[in-house]
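Today's session is about reading a structure prediction critically. Students often jump straight to the picture, but the first step is always the sequence itself: look for stretches that repeat, for charged clusters, for runs of hydrophobic residues. Only then move on to the predicted structure, which in these notes is written as discrete structure tokens rather than atom positions. Here is the chain we will use throughout the hour.
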Amino acid sequence: MYQIIDGKKISQQIKDELKEKVAALKAQGKTITLAVIQVGSDPASGVYVGNKKKACAYIGIESRAYELPEETTQEELLQLVAQLNADETVGGILVQLPLPGHISEDKVLLAIDPKKDVDGFHPVNVGNLSIGRPGFVSCTPAGVIQLLKRSGIEIQGKECVVLGRSNIVGKPMAMLLLRENGTVTVCHSRTKNLKEITKRADILVVAVGKPKFVTGDYVKEGAVVIDVGIHRNADNRLCGDVDFDSVAPHTSAITPVPGGVGPMTVAMLMYNCVEGGAKNACNQRIL
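Below is the predicted structure for this chain, in token form.
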């Protein structure tokens, strides 16, 4: 029988640990503030921003919301980012993506001070991850590592396959698995003999952005499967990149959609906020 990896439960554990740490910091007179910028009124972005605000309130982090109209210019947005970079009371800056088409996401993300880049998207933080230096790590792949560790799944020495090579998930996921001493293969749309490679995996992380792409014949018996995808099917129900019903019987452990990786992304964002804000007051890591 396979184990269902409960992302809701594990994310709650992390948020509870962070809540205790924030309370201890407040007792020392130190507050942590996250600035969240949203441009336009994209419904999905609104939901994500709302979830982040709720998590901040639960943990005790102060959040500042900057909800800007769709017609905001790139220069106006960059000026706001510069103001927040200079504001010593702000520990983290998050610009909700996607941005309207007339604004360059690359230029905006580059403008954020790497020390406040709690999303972990700035090239300085990506570079730090690649060479093993401290820095913020992209929240979704960091969440996957916590799902594995807190579920008692050993990474060291395991054959790990990452399906997808995006800058936000696939590439940092591979580097984090390497950091945990996994043996890592990255597959993508040009990979030949894909099923042969994925069937070697002890740990298979799927982040291809295609609903139910991975079926049972992609998976080795007893593998651990992590599904990063999230989509709505024809019945408006959530599903992932993995065909759960087909794949689950072949696994030793698997994440569901919803309730797997999704809740971990916000939890790890909160972790980055607390870790960054507490850096000068407390060097102890809780994860």
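Discussion point for the tutorial: Residues 280-286 have pLDDT under 50 and may be disordered.
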